[in-house]
Amino acid sequence: GMTTHSSIFVLVIISLSLFFFVTTTTGANLQVAFSSEPQLSTFANQISTSSLADQVNNPADFYTVFAPVNDGYSGQSSQYPDVRIYFTIEDLADSDLTDGLLISTLFYPPGDTLGDLSQKLKITVNSTGKFVSGSQILSGPHLADNGQYYIVDRIIALPQTLDKVIQANNNYSTFYQLLNSVNLVNFLADTPSITVFAPLNTGFQSLDPHFLQYLQTPAGNDDLVSILRSHIIPVPIYSQDFASIPTSIETTNPETPVSFNYQSGTAVVQGKSQVVSQDVLGANGVVFSVNNVIVPQNLLFTLRKQLTQNNQTYFVTACDKASIGNLLDTFAPILVVVPPQDSLTNALGSADSVGARSILLYHFLNSTPSALLSLPTGGKTLRVPTALALVDLSNSAPAPVAYQSVLVARFSSGFTLNQAHLRDNLANIPPSSFPNGAIASIDQVLTPPLESSEEVLAHNNINTFSSLLKSSNPKFFDESPPSTYLAPLDSAFAALPQSLRGYLMQSTNNSIALEDLRKILNLHVLPNVLLYSSDAPTTRGSITLSRVDGVGALTVQVVQTNQTNPLSQSASSSDVVQNDLLASDGVVHTLSSVLIPTDLNLNVVKTMIGLQLFSIVDAVVGSSLYSNFTSQDGVFTVFAPSDSALKAYQNSSNTNATTTTPSFEDLFKYHVMSGALLAINDFKGKTLVLTSALKLSSLNGQNQKLRISAPSNGTGKLIINGRIVSVLSSNNTATNGVIHVIDGVITPPGNAYEVLKAAGNYSTFLRVVDLLSNSSSGAGDGESTDLKGLLQNQLVTVFAPTDAAFANVPNGTIGYLLSGAPDALADLRAIISFHLNRSLIYSSQFPGYGDSREIEMVNDQPLLMSRGVVEDLPPPPPPPPTSLPILDDPDLEVNATSEHVDEIEGLLPRRLRQVQDLEEYDYESDSTSSATTTTTTTTTTTTTTTDVDTETEAVPATTTETATETTTTTETGTAPSTTTGTSSETETTTTIGAVTGIDTSTAFVSSSASPTNGTASILISTSPVPSMAGSQMSTSSNPTPTAPPPAAATEEWYQQMSLTGGGQVFLNGNQSRVTEADRVASNGVIHTIDYPLFPTNILLTIIKLLRGFGATGMIDLLTSAQQDEAFSNGQHQYTLFAPNNRAFSNYSYGNLSITDLTDLIRLHTVPGMISSIEENKTYTPLLPGYILVGGPNGKSIIIRNITYHVSVSNEASVHLVHSRNETVLYNDNPNTKTVTVTHPVPPRDPLSGRVAEANIVGSADASNGHVFLIDGVLEEGNSLFINESRYVAAFLLALLVIVVIALAMWLWTNRHSFQQQRLFED
After folding, report:
1. 195 near 288, Cβ under 8 Å?
2. Calculated CA dihedral for residues 215, 221, 227, 233, nearest 10 degrees
């Protein structure tokens, strides 16, 4: 079974093999195969009658045949193509038949039209199938013994000659037309074995139309033949050969090969003609399509040819006549602009041969249409050089160094060339195929610049610049090469500083000035360099030409080489006003400013020459200042007297010369400020202190200063050391300084005493100095200095109060100091010495803003200086005890509860103080006519502490913790103040009306208003320290800074500050203020202050001020009451309302006891220091039961009696501590909600007999308080000063009298009864 199955399998395999062999192999040769195919019968018959019959039957040969079907012969003539066209000896499988494949056949065209090459077939493959030379392959390959064949749908026609091939393709129509025009069509038909690179029609369209038009004219016939023959290669070249073709190919144009390049499958002929289709087969060659026309490299479409083509032979003739015709045949990219014939004829007819040649050369532009088209519209100028060389008057170069230019500008309407307009639209002139230029028409002749640079400058009114050029070299314009002139306008020279302009004008007389002039001119003349506006941005030498932001107007800048030169930095650039003024020997640009070299050393001496300060220059040249002024090591500000001012001074000095008259050198040194460079505006609205070059032995070898100020209204005035001078010329800048010309000579100042005396407003200060110098009284403790001698002969800094400052001192203070008493003279000497320091302290050494410093004065006391803040003074003593020392009584304690309100009201004495902060409280309060103290607390906890001291009045304290709290607090003499807060913890400080803040702006002073420095709230601790004696200023432990200088300080600000550095300068805390600084003297400096300084070691006590006021009655009262010591020491502060002597003349207190006298004093005394009285404000005197109220405008004081009423809530528990002089209300119940104490004040009614009022006639601060001098003794009712014991004694006496009288009357009435009783008893 296995064998049977194997045999069947073998038979099947053999049967399949035989079937396959039968279907693919005819089993015969090609001829038999063709004959066996009915559809190939016609083709078989054609073979049998041809020379190929034997070859087809030869089994030794192998052929691939493309056999047409019978239907493929229909419609054909009996003359069929040579059958050999279908045969090739190549073995071509179906996969070999790719698109573009060339197949060599057995057919060789007659006449050797392809040379030794046979005709080729070309395979084409597309979406419809495969084709061989136009016939579609229907099937195949079919195998035979000696070959294979493919069946095609039609006969393969023999190709035509190349002329027919080109003619048949419409894409070659222009090429064929041009071939036909020069009889080259027959050449293509008759010439065997050629290759044609045929340009498409689009290739001819890309040619310059003028050139294409030229080629079709008789004149261009030879060039056309040359171009066409350059497309014909004398050998057949097929694409399959491209890789082996050399880079240079011979053409049918003799000796004009074309280049060939083949890379990456792309073939390019003559650099830009790319092969775009391949292998169009012809009978005598092959055709390739190229996208551009092939132009021989040696063929030029010259300007001559173009002009001839444009019928502009008149221009050609003129150029030949001027011997420049060679330019028309030059191989160069130029643009020739041709004017109309009549305009050119007229222009050339009126010119000589040189002029005619120049005119024609000026029409040859070194540019192209595309370059001009790149120029943006809007009038921007493009400089285009021409063939015309500039004139070289210097004869320094053998060849032209530069060429004249035409200025081309583009507008929306077209182009302009100088003044001519372009007629042709350059956009219609495509980029030429030739590098030798193009031609455009203009509407008029371009006339080259005929004027020289000198003439151009003159015609544009640039006279100063031209004149200076000639000053530097009289033959300048005759010897200059072509140059660029950066010519400043006359207005630019006029705008130069007077000093520089005058200095340059001295160049004819001064060799140094001439040298500097040439340095400046070198920046404005660039020899052998032509810079046009179109060259920007560019740098040539020391000059940079640029545009603003790269696109705007032209600017010229000097390349910076010395950045430290202030003069050059201010004039190192300029705007170009007018550019590109063409000249025959250059180009001119006008400038708005004069350029200054960065290395120009226009020092102070040169600047003074320019200012014609010849007298000073002559003197300086021979002095030690000359080397400094000509050096670059320093800078100077010079206030230079004019020649006339200097001569007037010299004449006066010669007449009034003294031993102290300074030498001229020293005098001029005083006008020179070293190390400063100050413009006149630096003084505007300010006062500056400058260091001069003058050194003085009286200043210990230091340089003398000048104090200079100027108004802000620009009047041209300066105040130098108090003298007003006019500024004749300012800000004359030099490289090492600046000069201001003034109309006067500034002489060095005298000594400090002389300066103060000459000022006229320090007479009080000087009279005191004279007084102390003439008296030895008060000299001691190291203060025996001769103060006048110090001001005259020694180094000194003076803080000098003006007469107005002394007028601000209260009469009492002045009266005491000038009383002549030994202690007063000692105090006066200490005070005056406190204004002097034995060194030089200028405002520049004052402390900075927010800082302070101490300086030691002549009296060995430190003077505190601070700037910008009211300096924190040592706190004054605590409030004095409510009782004077002799009136201390034992305390009486009383307990009460809310159930005993009536009892409480009865027990409350006439003075009640609410719980206060123990440590500190605010002395400042608002004014009020009545006072109510209410404390409302929404929390559950209130803590109250009280400390009572027998010597110092206790200051109770209350601290409340609350989430939301509103507290209103008022004490006697204090208006309610409300504070509302949302913080978690609030500490409230209550105001005590007995001690108030000080507002000097409202202080009433008998002589004049005291200086105002603002109001400050003062927090005072309990440590007793003497206050600043004699001061009318307020003080603060919380410094309040004065505003620093604003960003743009106004004149008013400077007038207010008076000093540089910002902020006011305070002395001795804020006792006085510097209002004018740095009044210089030969031996020092003077600072004006607005209030005299009182050293802290001088105690101007109340007793001393009473002596100064002449208040002897008050002094006697204090002495009688044994209270003068309390007002003589500095342990405590009191405000005393002291009746004057006239008041005491109408008042008798001789019958009063010491206790009553003390109560009288206590009624006139308020604890603490009050410097001013406010209307309706209340003040609590030491005597309980009364308040003092400020009268109208604070110019009087009124006394009032006070009754207190207390309301206590049901929850309250009150504990009273009572003494003769004080009652304190304690809260014993922590749950108390409200405790109210009311202080009603009776209305002011003079007729009631309950009110007394006294006018304030004097006021003065004291070391231990303040004195108000009043014109009456304060009292209320006739029995005001009767002692309580006397009230009791009188009452008891009266009661005794009544009892005695009643007893007597009773006895008298009952005498009979007594008699009867006695009788009865008897």
Report:
1. yes
2. 150
- Return the closest-CA partner of residue 583 out of 476, 465, 483: 483
Q: Identify residue 1288 by its one-letter amino acid code.
A: V
Out of 188-197, 410-419, 1028-1037, 1232-1241, least confident range: 1028-1037
Neighbours of 213 (CB within 10 A): 13
What is the reported pLDDT for 767?
92
- Token look-up 């009150």 returns 1214
Query: Is residue 569 a contact partner of residue 558, using CB atoms and an 8 Å limit?
Result: no
Q: What CA–CA distance (Å, rounded) separates 939 from 1130? A: 44
**In the 8-state DSSP scheme, what is residue 25?**
B
Of 154, 1060, 404, 1167, the closest CA to residue 689 belongs to: 1060
Structural tokens at position 936? 């409302």
Please give the C-alpha separations between residue 673 and each of 683, 706, 722, 1041, 1072, in angstroms, as whole numbers: 14, 9, 18, 34, 32
Cα 65 to Cα 139: distance, rounded to the nearest angstrom: 12
Residues 6+ apart with CB under 8 A from 1110: 815, 1141
As a whole number of angstroms, the distance between CA 754 and CA 765 comes to 13
Question: How far is residue 955's CA from residue 128's CA, in Å, rounded to a whole number?
Answer: 122
110 secondary structure, DSSP code:
G
The pLDDT value given to residue 311: 84
What is the helix (H) or strand (E) element at residue 1267, kind and residue range? strand 1265-1270
Give me the torsion for CA of 300, 304, 306, 307, rounded to 10°: 180
Cβ–Cβ under 8 Å, residues 871 and 851: no
Helices (H), 630-759: 643-656, 664-669, 752-759
Pair 1232, 1212: CB distance under 8 Å: yes
Least confident segment among 187-196, 828-837, 1057-1066: 1057-1066
With left for phi above 0 and alpha for psi between -120 and 50, is residue 176 left, alpha or beta?
Answer: alpha
Report DSSP letters for 866-925, one per residue: EESB---PPPPPPPPPSS-GGG----EEEE--GGGHHHHHHH--S-EE----SS--B---
Measured distance CA(1227)–CA(1213) in Å, rounded: 6
What is the rounded CA–CA span in Å between residue 569 and residue 1150?
Answer: 90
- Beta pairing partners, 273: 269
Cα–Cα distance between 226 and 204 in angstroms, integer? 15
The confidence score (pLDDT) of residue 856 equals 94
**Residue 503, φ and ψ in degrees, nearest 5:** -65, -45
Q: Which of 1267, 1259, 1204, 1268 is nearest to 1236 (CA)?
A: 1204
What digits encode the pLDDT tens for the residues 1243-1255?
433 333 334 788 9
Tokens of 611: 């200012």
Residue 82 confidence (pLDDT) = 83
Using CA atoms, how far apart are residues 1303 and 1296, in angstroms rounded to an integer? 10
DSSP state of 642: P
pLDDT tens track for 211-266: 888 888 888 888 899 999 999 999 988 988 888 888 888 999 887 888 899 988 88
Other C-beta atoms closer than 10 Å to the C-beta of 743 total: 13
Q: How many residues does the chain have?
A: 1322
CA distance 264 to 812: 118
Q: What's residue 704's pLDDT? A: 83
What integer pLDDT is reported at residue 1062 of this predicted model? 56
Q: H-helix or E-strand containing 791? A: helix 787-793
Q: What is the mean pLDDT of the chain?
A: 74
Average pLDDT of span 865-884? 52
Contact 148, 140 (CB under 8 A): yes
pLDDT at position 1274 over 90:
no
Q: Which two tokens stand for residue 453?
A: 């640079």
Yes or no: say if 973 and 1187 are a contact pair by the CB < 8 Å rule: yes
Structure tokens at 1216: 């009273």
- Per residue in 1042-1065, pLDDT (tens digit) is 444 443 333 333 333 444 445 688
827 phi and psi angles, rounded to 5 deg: -65, -40
